[in-house]
Amino acid sequence: MSRTRTIRPASKSDLDAVASLLRRTGLPADDVPTAPAQFFVAIAADDPEPVGASGVELHGDAALLRSVAVTESARGSGHGRALTAAAAEHAATEGVETLYLLTETASDYFESLGFEHCERSDAPEAIRETTQFAELCPASAVCLCAPTVTVLEAAREDGRSNS
């Protein structure tokens, strides 16, 4: 898989492909068409279909980072970090200070970007009331949080060092 990629905001016409990718990677996707999220897609130079996606739901000075997924064949190419950086940058430009997320399988990955474990109850009410928190992610999912700037710097730095 090529490391040459384009990361761009997902258009409405991309949302079906985003939902399909999320389902294939075992992530909740039922709310993708209606979620109040900005999604991003990674397009590899050798594949016109998205090889990765991320999303971020903004809620004042907090945001929910969600749906960071990369197809199995494209993993290890930096797509996940680039997608995380795109979502964090979007959040930062909108004044978001803290990112929250839920994961069952990727704690180590997100910890490498500066996320730390926190209790679900520590998340702001607006985050706890999102469809991801309240309905789609199981109670077994771990809650992580981090300053937006920390995540953005870590994702960008790693992307530069692994190019």
From TrEMBL:
GO molecular function: acyltransferase activity, transferring groups other than amino-acyl groups
Top-level taxon of origin: Archaea
InterPro entries: Acyl_CoA_acyltransferase (IPR016181), Bact_Acetyltransf (IPR050832), GNAT_dom (IPR000182)
TM stretches of this protein: none
Domain N-acetyltransferase: 5-134
Keyword entries, A-Z: Acyltransferase, Transferase
Annotated protein name in UniProt: N-acetyltransferase domain-containing protein
